[in-house]
Amino acid sequence: MTAKKLGLKQRYAHMTRGLDWETSYQPIDKVFPYDQFEGIKIKDWSAWEDPFRLTMDAYWKFQAEKERKLYAVLDAFAQNNGQTGISDGRYMNVLKLFLTGISPEEYQSHRGFAFIGRHLRGVGPRVAAQQQSLDELRHVQTQIHTISHYNKFFNGMSEFPTMHDRVFYLSVPKSFFDDARSAGPFEYMIAIGFAFEYVLTNLLFVPFMSGAAYNGDMSTVTFGFSAQSDESRHMTLGIEVIKFLLEQHPDNLPIVQKWVDKWFWRGFRLLGLVAMMMDYMLPKPVMSWKEAWEIYFTEAGGALFQDLARYGLKMPKYHEVATEAAEHVGHQLYGLLYQLCHVAGLHAWMPDAKHMDWLSEKYPNTFDKYYRPRFEMWAQMEKEGKRFYYNGLLQLCHTCQLPMTFTEPGDPTTRCFRETQFKGNRYHFCSDGCKDIFDNEPEKYVQAWLPIQQIFQGNCGGPTVPDVLNWYQIKVGVDNAEYVGSEDHKLWESWKQDTAVSKAG
Protein backbone atom coordinates (compact mmCIF):
# COMPACT_ATOMS: atom_id res chain seq x y z
CA MET A 1 0.00 0.00 0.00
CA THR A 2 1.40 3.40 -0.97
CA ALA A 3 2.17 5.63 1.98
CA LYS A 4 -0.24 8.52 2.33
CA LYS A 5 1.30 11.82 1.27
CA LEU A 6 1.69 14.20 4.18
CA GLY A 7 -0.34 17.38 4.21
CA LEU A 8 1.41 20.75 4.15
CA LYS A 9 0.76 21.34 7.87
CA GLN A 10 2.12 17.91 8.86
CA ARG A 11 5.12 18.26 6.59
CA TYR A 12 5.84 21.72 8.04
CA ALA A 13 5.61 20.36 11.61
CA HIS A 14 8.00 17.49 10.82
CA MET A 15 10.51 19.77 9.13
CA THR A 16 10.54 22.38 11.91
CA ARG A 17 9.26 21.42 15.37
CA GLY A 18 9.97 17.76 14.66
CA LEU A 19 13.66 18.65 14.54
CA ASP A 20 13.72 19.28 18.31
CA TRP A 21 15.06 16.72 20.79
CA GLU A 22 15.48 16.12 24.51
CA THR A 23 19.04 16.12 25.76
CA SER A 24 20.24 12.85 27.31
CA TYR A 25 23.87 13.09 28.39
CA GLN A 26 24.08 16.86 29.03
CA PRO A 27 21.73 19.05 31.11
CA ILE A 28 19.61 21.33 28.90
CA ASP A 29 20.95 24.48 30.62
CA LYS A 30 24.46 23.50 29.58
CA VAL A 31 23.40 23.11 25.96
CA PHE A 32 21.66 26.51 25.96
CA PRO A 33 23.73 28.59 28.40
CA TYR A 34 22.81 32.12 27.24
CA ASP A 35 19.01 32.42 27.31
CA GLN A 36 18.49 32.92 31.05
CA PHE A 37 20.94 35.54 32.35
CA GLU A 38 18.92 38.45 30.95
CA GLY A 39 16.04 37.68 33.35
CA ILE A 40 13.46 36.78 30.68
CA LYS A 41 11.04 34.09 31.88
CA ILE A 42 9.68 31.58 29.35
CA LYS A 43 6.97 29.14 30.48
CA ASP A 44 6.20 27.45 27.16
CA TRP A 45 8.58 27.56 24.20
CA SER A 46 6.02 25.73 22.03
CA ALA A 47 3.79 28.84 22.16
CA TRP A 48 6.20 30.54 19.75
CA GLU A 49 4.31 30.64 16.44
CA ASP A 50 6.70 30.24 13.51
CA PRO A 51 5.94 33.36 11.50
CA PHE A 52 7.84 32.28 8.37
CA ARG A 53 5.78 29.13 7.79
CA LEU A 54 8.58 27.83 5.57
CA THR A 55 10.38 24.52 5.52
CA MET A 56 14.00 24.68 4.51
CA ASP A 57 13.42 22.98 1.14
CA ALA A 58 10.70 25.54 0.31
CA TYR A 59 13.06 28.30 1.44
CA TRP A 60 15.84 27.14 -0.92
CA LYS A 61 13.39 26.91 -3.82
CA PHE A 62 12.00 30.45 -3.35
CA GLN A 63 15.38 32.04 -2.84
CA ALA A 64 16.94 30.28 -5.86
CA GLU A 65 14.16 31.61 -8.10
CA LYS A 66 14.70 35.15 -6.81
CA GLU A 67 18.46 34.88 -7.34
CA ARG A 68 17.99 33.75 -10.94
CA LYS A 69 15.85 36.79 -11.77
CA LEU A 70 18.01 39.23 -9.83
CA TYR A 71 21.27 38.32 -11.53
CA ALA A 72 19.62 38.38 -14.98
CA VAL A 73 18.58 42.01 -14.39
CA LEU A 74 22.00 42.95 -13.00
CA ASP A 75 23.74 41.45 -16.04
CA ALA A 76 21.44 43.35 -18.39
CA PHE A 77 22.10 46.60 -16.48
CA ALA A 78 25.86 46.15 -16.82
CA GLN A 79 25.73 45.15 -20.50
CA ASN A 80 23.66 48.24 -21.34
CA ASN A 81 25.96 50.66 -19.47
CA GLY A 82 23.22 51.43 -16.95
CA GLN A 83 25.66 53.58 -14.96
CA THR A 84 25.29 56.31 -17.60
CA GLY A 85 21.53 56.44 -17.04
CA ILE A 86 21.55 57.62 -13.41
CA SER A 87 20.28 61.14 -12.73
CA ASP A 88 23.65 62.72 -11.88
CA GLY A 89 27.18 61.70 -10.84
CA ARG A 90 26.52 63.05 -7.32
CA TYR A 91 24.08 60.17 -6.79
CA MET A 92 27.04 57.75 -6.52
CA ASN A 93 27.81 59.16 -3.06
CA VAL A 94 24.51 57.73 -1.82
CA LEU A 95 25.71 54.27 -2.90
CA LYS A 96 29.11 54.84 -1.27
CA LEU A 97 27.36 55.64 2.00
CA PHE A 98 25.15 52.54 1.62
CA LEU A 99 28.03 50.20 0.72
CA THR A 100 30.34 51.34 3.51
CA GLY A 101 27.68 51.95 6.17
CA ILE A 102 24.83 49.48 5.59
CA SER A 103 26.05 46.44 3.65
CA PRO A 104 28.61 45.34 6.31
CA GLU A 105 25.81 45.49 8.88
CA GLU A 106 23.85 42.95 6.85
CA TYR A 107 26.76 40.60 7.51
CA GLN A 108 26.73 41.55 11.20
CA SER A 109 23.03 40.74 11.23
CA HIS A 110 23.75 37.38 9.56
CA ARG A 111 26.21 36.49 12.31
CA GLY A 112 23.84 37.68 15.03
CA PHE A 113 20.90 35.59 13.84
CA ALA A 114 23.16 32.58 13.36
CA PHE A 115 24.04 32.93 17.07
CA ILE A 116 20.35 33.20 17.99
CA GLY A 117 19.56 30.16 15.85
CA ARG A 118 22.00 28.19 17.98
CA HIS A 119 21.28 29.56 21.44
CA LEU A 120 17.51 29.90 21.90
CA ARG A 121 16.14 26.63 23.24
CA GLY A 122 12.76 26.84 21.44
CA VAL A 123 12.80 25.09 18.06
CA GLY A 124 10.39 27.61 16.46
CA PRO A 125 12.66 30.63 16.97
CA ARG A 126 15.73 28.54 16.11
CA VAL A 127 14.38 27.70 12.64
CA ALA A 128 13.13 31.26 12.05
CA ALA A 129 16.47 32.78 13.13
CA GLN A 130 18.40 30.35 10.92
CA GLN A 131 16.42 31.43 7.87
CA GLN A 132 16.84 35.11 8.69
CA SER A 133 20.56 34.54 9.12
CA LEU A 134 20.71 33.12 5.57
CA ASP A 135 18.61 36.03 4.27
CA GLU A 136 21.05 38.55 5.72
CA LEU A 137 24.05 36.77 4.18
CA ARG A 138 22.28 36.80 0.82
CA HIS A 139 21.56 40.52 1.18
CA VAL A 140 25.18 41.50 1.75
CA GLN A 141 26.28 39.35 -1.20
CA THR A 142 23.73 40.83 -3.61
CA GLN A 143 24.41 44.39 -2.46
CA ILE A 144 28.15 44.04 -2.96
CA HIS A 145 27.65 42.35 -6.33
CA THR A 146 25.28 45.11 -7.49
CA ILE A 147 27.43 48.01 -6.40
CA SER A 148 30.63 46.36 -7.68
CA HIS A 149 29.57 47.36 -11.19
CA TYR A 150 29.84 51.04 -10.25
CA ASN A 151 33.26 50.40 -8.73
CA LYS A 152 34.61 49.95 -12.28
CA PHE A 153 33.92 53.64 -12.97
CA PHE A 154 33.69 55.64 -9.73
CA ASN A 155 36.12 56.15 -6.84
CA GLY A 156 35.69 55.54 -3.11
CA MET A 157 34.24 52.02 -3.06
CA SER A 158 37.13 49.60 -3.54
CA GLU A 159 38.27 49.60 0.11
CA PHE A 160 34.84 49.57 1.74
CA PRO A 161 35.50 46.77 4.31
CA THR A 162 38.54 48.60 5.70
CA MET A 163 36.74 51.94 5.65
CA HIS A 164 33.83 50.44 7.56
CA ASP A 165 36.13 49.38 10.39
CA ARG A 166 38.13 52.62 10.57
CA VAL A 167 36.51 55.79 9.17
CA PHE A 168 35.03 57.97 11.91
CA TYR A 169 31.38 58.36 10.78
CA LEU A 170 31.12 54.65 9.93
CA SER A 171 31.63 53.79 13.59
CA VAL A 172 28.00 54.91 14.02
CA PRO A 173 26.43 51.87 12.26
CA LYS A 174 29.31 49.62 13.32
CA SER A 175 28.92 50.45 17.02
CA PHE A 176 25.13 49.91 16.74
CA PHE A 177 25.60 46.31 15.61
CA ASP A 178 28.58 45.67 17.89
CA ASP A 179 26.32 46.73 20.76
CA ALA A 180 23.50 44.41 19.62
CA ARG A 181 25.75 41.42 18.98
CA SER A 182 27.41 41.71 22.37
CA ALA A 183 23.99 41.73 24.11
CA GLY A 184 22.09 38.63 25.21
CA PRO A 185 19.97 36.68 22.71
CA PHE A 186 16.63 38.15 23.77
CA GLU A 187 17.94 41.71 23.69
CA TYR A 188 19.39 41.05 20.23
CA MET A 189 15.95 39.95 19.04
CA ILE A 190 14.40 43.17 20.37
CA ALA A 191 17.26 45.33 19.01
CA ILE A 192 17.41 43.95 15.48
CA GLY A 193 14.28 41.82 15.10
CA PHE A 194 11.82 44.34 16.57
CA ALA A 195 13.27 47.88 16.84
CA PHE A 196 15.31 47.80 13.63
CA GLU A 197 13.48 45.33 11.37
CA TYR A 198 9.92 46.22 12.42
CA VAL A 199 9.74 49.75 13.83
CA LEU A 200 12.47 51.50 11.81
CA THR A 201 13.20 49.37 8.71
CA ASN A 202 10.90 51.34 6.38
CA LEU A 203 12.83 54.50 7.26
CA LEU A 204 15.99 52.84 5.95
CA PHE A 205 15.07 50.74 2.93
CA VAL A 206 12.11 52.62 1.45
CA PRO A 207 14.00 55.93 1.13
CA PHE A 208 17.09 54.23 -0.34
CA MET A 209 15.08 52.16 -2.84
CA SER A 210 12.63 54.88 -3.85
CA GLY A 211 15.58 57.29 -4.15
CA ALA A 212 17.39 54.78 -6.37
CA ALA A 213 14.33 54.34 -8.60
CA TYR A 214 13.76 58.09 -8.94
CA ASN A 215 17.43 58.63 -9.78
CA GLY A 216 17.64 55.92 -12.47
CA ASP A 217 19.59 53.30 -10.49
CA MET A 218 17.60 50.24 -11.53
CA SER A 219 20.23 47.77 -10.31
CA THR A 220 19.87 48.95 -6.71
CA VAL A 221 16.09 48.94 -7.05
CA THR A 222 16.28 45.34 -8.22
CA PHE A 223 18.22 44.07 -5.24
CA GLY A 224 15.88 46.10 -3.04
CA PHE A 225 12.83 44.35 -4.48
CA SER A 226 14.57 41.00 -4.22
CA ALA A 227 15.22 41.64 -0.52
CA GLN A 228 11.78 43.08 0.19
CA SER A 229 9.97 39.75 0.55
CA ASP A 230 12.66 38.75 3.08
CA GLU A 231 12.17 42.03 4.92
CA SER A 232 8.45 41.33 5.20
CA ARG A 233 9.21 38.00 6.88
CA HIS A 234 11.73 39.70 9.16
CA MET A 235 9.08 42.20 10.25
CA THR A 236 6.75 39.30 11.04
CA LEU A 237 9.41 37.69 13.17
CA GLY A 238 10.05 41.01 14.95
CA ILE A 239 6.43 41.46 15.99
CA GLU A 240 6.12 37.77 16.94
CA VAL A 241 9.08 37.90 19.30
CA ILE A 242 7.82 40.85 21.30
CA LYS A 243 4.31 39.40 21.67
CA PHE A 244 5.78 36.05 22.71
CA LEU A 245 7.97 37.61 25.40
CA LEU A 246 5.15 39.78 26.77
CA GLU A 247 2.68 36.88 26.87
CA GLN A 248 5.05 34.50 28.64
CA HIS A 249 5.37 36.30 32.00
CA PRO A 250 4.43 39.74 33.43
CA ASP A 251 7.97 40.13 34.81
CA ASN A 252 9.23 40.38 31.21
CA LEU A 253 7.45 43.70 30.56
CA PRO A 254 9.87 46.11 32.33
CA ILE A 255 12.88 44.36 30.75
CA VAL A 256 11.37 44.53 27.27
CA GLN A 257 10.27 48.17 27.74
CA LYS A 258 13.84 49.14 28.71
CA TRP A 259 15.21 47.42 25.59
CA VAL A 260 12.57 49.08 23.35
CA ASP A 261 13.48 52.52 24.78
CA LYS A 262 17.19 51.89 24.26
CA TRP A 263 17.06 50.48 20.73
CA PHE A 264 14.53 52.99 19.48
CA TRP A 265 16.89 55.80 20.44
CA ARG A 266 19.98 54.05 19.07
CA GLY A 267 18.11 53.36 15.81
CA PHE A 268 16.91 56.96 15.60
CA ARG A 269 20.46 58.27 15.90
CA LEU A 270 21.77 55.75 13.33
CA LEU A 271 19.07 56.76 10.85
CA GLY A 272 20.33 60.34 11.01
CA LEU A 273 22.69 59.26 8.19
CA VAL A 274 19.62 58.36 6.10
CA ALA A 275 18.04 61.75 6.95
CA MET A 276 21.14 63.49 5.59
CA MET A 277 21.00 61.37 2.43
CA MET A 278 17.30 62.04 1.80
CA ASP A 279 17.41 65.78 2.40
CA TYR A 280 20.66 66.61 0.60
CA MET A 281 22.39 63.78 -1.31
CA LEU A 282 19.75 62.64 -3.82
CA PRO A 283 20.08 64.81 -6.96
CA LYS A 284 16.36 64.18 -7.50
CA PRO A 285 14.87 64.09 -4.00
CA VAL A 286 11.90 61.85 -3.33
CA MET A 287 10.58 63.06 0.00
CA SER A 288 12.04 64.85 3.00
CA TRP A 289 13.18 63.06 6.14
CA LYS A 290 10.44 64.84 8.05
CA GLU A 291 7.78 63.45 5.69
CA ALA A 292 9.25 59.95 5.93
CA TRP A 293 9.30 60.16 9.74
CA GLU A 294 5.65 61.22 9.83
CA ILE A 295 4.56 58.34 7.57
CA TYR A 296 6.75 55.51 8.83
CA PHE A 297 7.13 56.33 12.51
CA THR A 298 4.47 58.78 13.70
CA GLU A 299 1.61 57.07 11.83
CA ALA A 300 2.74 53.46 11.37
CA GLY A 301 4.74 53.26 14.61
CA GLY A 302 1.96 54.98 16.54
CA ALA A 303 -0.56 52.38 15.34
CA LEU A 304 1.84 49.57 16.26
CA PHE A 305 2.30 50.77 19.83
CA GLN A 306 -1.45 51.30 20.19
CA ASP A 307 -1.82 47.60 19.40
CA LEU A 308 0.93 46.63 21.84
CA ALA A 309 -0.59 48.74 24.63
CA ARG A 310 -2.78 45.75 25.57
CA TYR A 311 0.42 44.10 26.85
CA GLY A 312 1.32 47.23 28.87
CA LEU A 313 4.07 48.29 26.44
CA LYS A 314 4.37 52.06 25.99
CA MET A 315 5.74 54.22 23.18
CA PRO A 316 9.56 54.42 23.37
CA LYS A 317 10.97 56.99 25.76
CA TYR A 318 11.99 60.23 23.99
CA HIS A 319 9.82 59.51 20.92
CA GLU A 320 8.47 63.08 21.11
CA VAL A 321 12.07 64.39 21.15
CA ALA A 322 12.86 62.32 18.04
CA THR A 323 9.78 63.63 16.23
CA GLU A 324 10.69 67.25 17.03
CA ALA A 325 14.28 66.59 15.92
CA ALA A 326 13.10 65.34 12.50
CA GLU A 327 12.93 69.04 11.58
CA HIS A 328 16.68 69.45 12.14
CA VAL A 329 18.73 66.27 12.00
CA GLY A 330 19.24 66.11 8.20
CA HIS A 331 20.44 69.73 8.01
CA GLN A 332 22.75 69.41 11.00
CA LEU A 333 24.43 66.23 9.74
CA TYR A 334 24.82 67.32 6.11
CA GLY A 335 26.32 70.58 7.36
CA LEU A 336 28.92 68.45 9.11
CA LEU A 337 29.58 66.30 6.04
CA TYR A 338 30.05 69.43 3.91
CA GLN A 339 32.72 70.66 6.33
CA LEU A 340 34.36 67.24 6.81
CA CYS A 341 34.24 65.58 3.38
CA HIS A 342 38.03 66.07 3.04
CA VAL A 343 38.41 63.34 5.70
CA ALA A 344 35.52 61.14 4.46
CA GLY A 345 35.36 58.41 1.83
CA LEU A 346 32.86 60.30 -0.33
CA HIS A 347 32.22 63.72 -1.79
CA ALA A 348 29.94 66.55 -0.67
CA TRP A 349 28.74 69.68 -2.44
CA MET A 350 26.80 72.90 -1.93
CA PRO A 351 23.06 72.46 -2.60
CA ASP A 352 22.02 74.70 -5.52
CA ALA A 353 19.28 77.35 -5.35
CA LYS A 354 16.60 74.96 -6.63
CA HIS A 355 17.45 72.39 -3.96
CA MET A 356 17.45 75.02 -1.21
CA ASP A 357 14.00 76.15 -2.36
CA TRP A 358 12.83 72.53 -2.11
CA LEU A 359 14.19 72.41 1.46
CA SER A 360 12.37 75.67 2.27
CA GLU A 361 9.13 74.12 1.02
CA LYS A 362 9.64 70.89 2.99
CA TYR A 363 10.82 72.60 6.19
CA PRO A 364 8.88 75.90 6.26
CA ASN A 365 9.41 76.39 10.00
CA THR A 366 13.15 75.81 10.20
CA PHE A 367 15.23 75.75 7.00
CA ASP A 368 15.15 79.44 6.03
CA LYS A 369 15.46 80.57 9.65
CA TYR A 370 18.27 78.35 10.91
CA TYR A 371 20.06 76.55 8.03
CA ARG A 372 19.79 78.49 4.75
CA PRO A 373 21.95 81.38 6.07
CA ARG A 374 24.71 78.91 6.97
CA PHE A 375 24.73 77.33 3.49
CA GLU A 376 24.60 80.72 1.79
CA MET A 377 27.62 81.83 3.82
CA TRP A 378 29.56 78.73 2.73
CA ALA A 379 28.41 79.28 -0.88
CA GLN A 380 29.79 82.82 -0.77
CA MET A 381 33.09 81.51 0.60
CA GLU A 382 33.25 79.01 -2.29
CA LYS A 383 32.63 81.86 -4.72
CA GLU A 384 35.58 83.72 -3.23
CA GLY A 385 37.78 80.63 -3.62
CA LYS A 386 37.72 79.86 0.11
CA ARG A 387 35.81 76.55 0.20
CA PHE A 388 35.44 75.82 3.94
CA TYR A 389 36.79 72.63 5.52
CA TYR A 390 36.81 72.06 9.28
CA ASN A 391 40.32 71.02 10.32
CA GLY A 392 39.83 70.12 13.97
CA LEU A 393 38.95 66.81 15.62
CA LEU A 394 35.33 66.52 16.65
CA GLN A 395 34.08 65.43 20.04
CA LEU A 396 31.95 62.30 19.69
CA CYS A 397 28.98 61.13 21.74
CA HIS A 398 30.18 58.15 23.76
CA THR A 399 27.04 56.13 22.98
CA CYS A 400 25.92 56.76 19.38
CA GLN A 401 29.42 57.91 18.26
CA LEU A 402 28.00 60.77 16.16
CA PRO A 403 29.71 64.16 16.53
CA MET A 404 28.21 66.41 19.22
CA THR A 405 26.31 68.50 16.69
CA PHE A 406 22.69 68.15 17.76
CA THR A 407 20.76 70.92 19.47
CA GLU A 408 18.57 71.10 22.56
CA PRO A 409 14.97 69.90 22.16
CA GLY A 410 12.90 72.99 21.34
CA ASP A 411 15.94 75.24 20.94
CA PRO A 412 17.88 74.80 17.67
CA THR A 413 20.30 77.59 18.61
CA THR A 414 21.84 75.78 21.60
CA ARG A 415 24.00 72.69 21.31
CA CYS A 416 22.84 69.73 23.43
CA PHE A 417 25.60 68.59 25.74
CA ARG A 418 25.28 65.99 28.50
CA GLU A 419 27.94 64.35 30.65
CA THR A 420 28.30 61.75 33.35
CA GLN A 421 31.10 60.40 35.54
CA PHE A 422 32.00 56.75 35.99
CA LYS A 423 34.93 55.47 38.06
CA GLY A 424 36.61 58.87 38.04
CA ASN A 425 36.33 59.49 34.29
CA ARG A 426 34.01 61.92 32.53
CA TYR A 427 31.96 60.84 29.48
CA HIS A 428 30.05 63.09 27.05
CA PHE A 429 26.75 62.62 25.20
CA CYS A 430 24.73 64.30 22.47
CA SER A 431 21.33 63.79 24.13
CA ASP A 432 19.44 62.57 27.17
CA GLY A 433 18.64 59.37 25.25
CA CYS A 434 22.33 58.51 24.75
CA LYS A 435 23.19 59.46 28.36
CA ASP A 436 20.44 57.17 29.69
CA ILE A 437 21.77 54.25 27.64
CA PHE A 438 25.30 54.74 29.01
CA ASP A 439 24.11 55.20 32.60
CA ASN A 440 22.21 51.88 32.43
CA GLU A 441 25.27 49.88 31.29
CA PRO A 442 28.42 51.94 31.96
CA GLU A 443 30.70 48.87 32.21
CA LYS A 444 29.82 48.00 28.62
CA TYR A 445 30.07 51.44 27.03
CA VAL A 446 33.37 52.49 28.60
CA GLN A 447 34.91 49.82 26.35
CA ALA A 448 33.60 51.49 23.16
CA TRP A 449 36.14 52.08 20.35
CA LEU A 450 35.72 55.77 19.53
CA PRO A 451 37.62 56.75 16.36
CA ILE A 452 38.58 60.28 17.40
CA GLN A 453 39.91 59.13 20.77
CA GLN A 454 41.88 56.44 18.94
CA ILE A 455 43.56 59.13 16.80
CA PHE A 456 44.60 60.97 19.98
CA GLN A 457 45.97 57.72 21.38
CA GLY A 458 48.13 57.16 18.28
CA ASN A 459 46.29 54.09 17.00
CA CYS A 460 45.26 55.39 13.57
CA GLY A 461 48.40 55.54 11.48
CA GLY A 462 49.92 58.74 12.83
CA PRO A 463 49.22 62.24 14.13
CA THR A 464 48.58 64.12 10.86
CA VAL A 465 45.55 64.19 8.57
CA PRO A 466 47.47 62.48 5.68
CA ASP A 467 48.61 59.75 8.12
CA VAL A 468 45.05 59.05 9.24
CA LEU A 469 43.60 59.15 5.71
CA ASN A 470 46.27 56.72 4.56
CA TRP A 471 45.28 54.42 7.44
CA TYR A 472 41.62 54.80 6.42
CA GLN A 473 42.74 53.76 2.88
CA ILE A 474 41.18 56.92 1.47
CA LYS A 475 43.01 58.21 -1.62
CA VAL A 476 43.51 61.92 -0.99
CA GLY A 477 42.10 64.11 -3.77
CA VAL A 478 40.43 61.11 -5.41
CA ASP A 479 37.98 59.54 -2.95
CA ASN A 480 37.33 62.56 -0.75
CA ALA A 481 36.57 66.32 -0.54
CA GLU A 482 34.48 68.56 -2.82
CA TYR A 483 32.52 66.85 -5.61
CA VAL A 484 32.83 69.70 -8.11
CA GLY A 485 36.13 69.21 -9.92
CA SER A 486 36.65 65.66 -8.62
CA GLU A 487 37.50 62.73 -10.91
CA ASP A 488 33.94 61.42 -10.49
CA HIS A 489 32.58 64.82 -11.57
CA LYS A 490 34.88 65.00 -14.60
CA LEU A 491 33.91 61.48 -15.68
CA TRP A 492 30.23 62.28 -15.38
CA GLU A 493 30.62 65.51 -17.38
CA SER A 494 32.49 63.62 -20.12
CA TRP A 495 29.62 61.10 -20.37
CA LYS A 496 27.15 63.98 -20.63
CA GLN A 497 29.17 65.55 -23.44
CA ASP A 498 29.36 62.23 -25.31
CA THR A 499 25.60 61.83 -25.00
CA ALA A 500 24.98 65.36 -26.26
CA VAL A 501 27.29 64.80 -29.27
CA SER A 502 25.62 61.50 -30.01
CA LYS A 503 22.14 63.08 -29.96
CA ALA A 504 23.26 66.02 -32.10
CA GLY A 505 24.95 63.95 -34.68
TrEMBL record:
InterPro entries: Ferritin-like_SF, Phenol_Hydrox, RNR-like, YHS_dom. GO terms for molecular function: monooxygenase activity. The keyword Magnesium does not apply. Keywords: Monooxygenase, Oxidoreductase. It holds the Pfam family Phenol_Hydrox. Residues 415-449 form the YHS domain. The keyword Transit peptide does not apply. This is Aromatic/alkene/methane monooxygenase hydroxylase/oxygenase subunit alpha. The lineage of its organism: Bacteria, Pseudomonadati, Pseudomonadota, Alphaproteobacteria, Hyphomicrobiales.
